[in-house]
Specification:
The chain contains 11 helices and 8 strands. The longest helix is centred in the last third of the chain and has 32 residues, at 178-209. The chain folds into 2 domains: 5-176, NAD(P)-binding Rossmann-like Domain (Rossmann fold), CATH 3.40.50; 180-284, 6-phosphogluconate dehydrogenase C-terminal like domain (6-phosphogluconate dehydrogenase C-terminal fold, Orthogonal Bundle), CATH 1.10.3660.10. It has an 8-stranded mixed beta sheet, sandwiched between helices. The chain is elongated, with a radius of gyration of 21 Å. The protein is an alpha/beta fold.
Amino acid sequence: MGIYFRRMTIIGVGLIGGSLARVCKKKNLVGEIIGVGRTEGNLKKAKELGVIDQYYLNTKKAVNDTDLVILATPVSSFVKIINDIRPNLKKGSIVIDVGSVKLGFLIEVENLLPKGVHFVGTHPIAGTEKSGVGASFLELFQGAKCIITPTPKTNKKALDKVVELWRQTGSDVIIMDPARHDRILSAISHLPHLIAYALVNTIEDINNVEEDVLSYSAGGFRDFTRIASSSTEMWRDICLLNKNSIIDSINRFKYNLELLKNFIENEDGTGLEERFKKAKYLRDNMNK
């Protein structure tokens, strides 16, 4: 199935939006790419890099006569953006998001869109700890999973076009119920980010007692905490919008951490090693 969008507008030209634009240009999936954002500096850079063709600071103007709108801003801004742009969206256009949470806004956004404008929830599971259009690159989605979360309201033709768009990026497309998406991502993505943030803060607490702790950090600590350099605004929104699933994941993690603590307190080497062996086996076979 071939796809072509005459005009695409990216709201939030950063790592994800910029990388998607690069693929669309490379594969001639889009005729013209419009960028919109809060700061002109980032948009100018995006144009200089050839990621977008033109840009606007006015979101309403940016979506005029566009076929595909990408919401690539923090998730908490989606409803406000839709309220702003809905009078300017043309019939038959498609709006997608790239957010890591779905249920926190999905139904509200669907209900806000004018008749004939189609929304499809998407989540490319790809990224780095870096942000901004300068961090974007062509191969970001190659071999990565992209979860698409249709609802009973999702238009079939729009869904097919969006599935093909993400396949063209090199993504492995998976169709999933929005609620299941949020439960899975709370464990496999949201919890690790919270742990990384908490770990760095814990080391700083220790650093206040035992000076210069961080200067002894090696590759393992730096690799483990790399994601603590991610966008704080984005992760604030994810935590609040996926609250229940994340709290459940935190409680499960606390249980496992408490278990290790009890083994250590009781000098139970056998118990400790069994938990370590279980984790090692799971990690060693993760990709199988």
